[in-house]
Design goal:
Elements: H1 6-9, E1 23-24, H2 25-32, H3 45-53, H4 55-66, E2 76-77, H5 93-108, H6 111-132, E3 134-135, E4 141-142, H7 159-172, H8 178-189
Antiparallel strand pairs: 1-2, 3-4
Helix pairs in contact: 4-6, 5-6, 5-7, 6-7, 7-8
């Protein structure tokens, strides 16, 4: 009825113990993300049930901890969707879960799943991001003091938030009420440019990376 913890799904031990008893989004998602494209999307049912049943707790977390509308999915939750007792500044798990549900529906065409799973998740994430992004004096919508993934320093206009907002809004605006749809379209039309940092001589030699995980490999993209 429940997904395995990532420690028993990805990391195996030859002892009878569980090192972490919670569900860590950035680890557990890798167990289920490939299933639809591999033709076994039905195996993700327990994961989608976990996320659907945890949505009320995500709404409570947004209200009580963040002071925001909508649903905030902590990247560390228990089986009831209750977030860990530290405040996470990472806002993307809910959006990633919503889009994974959306892709599952695209593969299956299951209208019940769309109504009961996908749209409520998209709605909760949309309401949260609409309350997080603030329109600045420059006319652009900005988000402040959030992080990418698990544990880097807080930033403004965090790349992952902008990217995931675009993904969620572009899907959900076709289902939203007219007033919300109008606001979503205004936000989409007035987002800041994605933050870009140029490579310097410490990062690459003009051909390949000279530092970090990608050392010796060519950069992707044009620049």
């Amino acid at each position: 009825a429940y997904p395995p913890h990532f420690t028993s799904g990805l990391w195996g031990f030859n002892h009878d113990f569980v090192t972490w008893v919670y569900y860590f989004h950035y680890n557990i998602q890798h167990l289920y993300a490939p299933l639809d494209v591999s033709g076994h999307g039905e195996l993700a049912k327990c994961y989608f049930d976990l996320r659907k049943n945890g949505l009320p707790a995500a709404y409570r977390y947004a209200k009580e901890v963040k002071g925001k509308n909508g649903a905030f999915v902590h990247d560390v939750t228990d089986r009831y969707g209750r977030g860990a007792d530290y405040d996470s500044l990472n806002c993307t798990p809910g959006a990633q879960i919503a889009m994974q549900m959306w892709h599952h529906w695209k593969h299956t065409g299951d209208e019940f799943f769309l109504k009961e799973y996908v749209l409520p998740q998209l709605k909760g994430v949309t309401e949260f991001y609409l309350d997080m992004f603030e329109k600045g004096e420059d006319g652009k919508y900005h988000i402040y003091n959030t992080t990418m993934y698990e544990g880097n320093r807080p930033t403004d206009d965090t790349l992952t938030d902008i990217v995931m907002l675009k993904a969620v809004f572009n899907v959900y605006k076709d289902y939203a009420e007219p007033q919300m749809k109008h606001l979503m379209e205004d936000v989409l039309a007035n987002l800041p440019e994605l933050p870009v940092l140029p490579l310097d001589e410490h990062d690459w030699d003009g051909e390949v990376f000279t530092f970090g995980i990608g050392k010796g490999r060519k950069p992707y993209g044009d620049n």
